[in-house]
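So, can you check what follows?
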Amino acid sequence: MKEKHNLSNYQKVYKTFSFKKEEKDFWGNQEKINLVSKILDENITGKNRNKVALYWEGEDEKTKEITFFELSILTNQFGNFLKDLKVKKGDRVFFFLPRIPEIYFGFLGAIKIGAVAGTLFPAFGKQALFDRLKNSSAKILITNRELYKRVQKIEGGLPELKKVVLVENLTKKLAHFPITLKSRPMNYDDPAFMLYTSATGNTPVCGIVIPHKGFIQQHYTAKWVLDLKEDDLYWCTADPGWVTGVVYGLLAPLSLGVSQLAFEGRFSVKKWYELIEKYKVSVLYTAPTALRMLEREEKKTKDYDLSSLRHINSVGEALTSTSIKWVKKTFNLPIFDTWWQTETGAMILANYPCLKLKKGSLGKPIPGVEVSIRDDQGKKLPPNKIGNLAIKPKWPSMMMDVWKNKKRYHSYFKHGWFFSGDKASYDKDGYFYFAGREDAIIKSSGERISSFDVESSISEHKDVLEVGVIGKPDELRGEIIKAFIVLKPKIKPSQELKEEIKQHVKKDLAGHAYPKEIEFVKDLPKNRSGKIVRRILKAQELGLPLGDTSTLIKS
């Protein structure tokens, strides 16, 4: 079993680090850059040349091992293939694929020639696909035969889509292209990739563009927060269709010379434990939803040797104290929460191996980034007051644009700060605490109540597995709290249990912050990154239109 955490120099780095000072060393004082040169070109000239970069296991249990040198060759051949298709600097190349090796070397190959790479989640239906491909004006789409059936239904409405490439034909095609390719020099602010985030309001899609210069922050946060070392076997469970799967499941770990695991198949408690045991996974980056699903079948942990695990991080939604306790009990390890968004391009708040963990905290800002809690007028709020979670521009990985939507881009910036859309607070020691999205703050009888605080309290009840909380309009109080609760297996719903949960919240949180209404449900609406979608709960409760449901997990 690997030693736990090397804490050396973290505190010193945290106090003294500046991205401006480090940029020259990181990029080698170059006037032009390309992030793929930091990922592959530097690795294949040293000791990692023949080291396995990617351990891949397919849904049918087929396996592949791809070394850094082999990954570089495939990346170069794919880049040359795109150049043969007349792909130029700035053209959008999108990947609509399951978690297979082609999405890894293809994404890198597109960026290496100066194109803008993008991914589409493989569960997207035809409307979600059409909106994103139309908005991005994608020139090339890489997919497979099965997924292409969905593309065919919309292809006629995409005149700028010049070529659809099926991966089943790719191996033979790439064999005809050179194995060497020089990275195209790019300006620091040139776009490297674009990813679509959840739509709001009247905006059907929102394409977030991240520049090449952002890679310095992606690289360092993988090193500091994920605590990656060269002898680790790392597994980021996020799909490459989303930002976590791209930044921390494709790009950053490779630049650190770390071997990583990619699994094509669907979630299964048994399979996940088999993979951790088989590949001796030492660092895991996953989501609270996955942890709760593992907890449902916690007895299975006894059947596997999971002792290789030494460090676990979480992302997607704030961790509840129940999940924290379960991880500690099951793996004898702490779990380190992180906070960031597609728009931030990399981690912003995190718990570090060197810092004391505080219950429910997202941790502290990463070195070189300033985070603050501001009111709607931009005034800084004191400790323990809920306000807007704001970031001082311009951190390196900050989005450079919202594709074809300048109005949306500028809407994020107010009073000299980037307003994230999340509500949070901080304590006297500088630790930050998530309170919810802007629409997740419940205003009842003049009090501002965090839906996340209520959910955290309810989740600590011994019979509760998952919970989603909304504010429901009320003539007397403005809003009341309603909780939708998934009970643990074999627990029967009853009126007595509802009252017991209400009393638990009153004692644990506050007398005014308990749910006036409770509804037991079989499951909760979640998006593909595992977050509970409260707006769907609210829309269903009030009989309102559901809005964009393209990113929801179909139950």
In short: The radius of gyration is 23 Å. The first helix runs from residue 10 to 16.
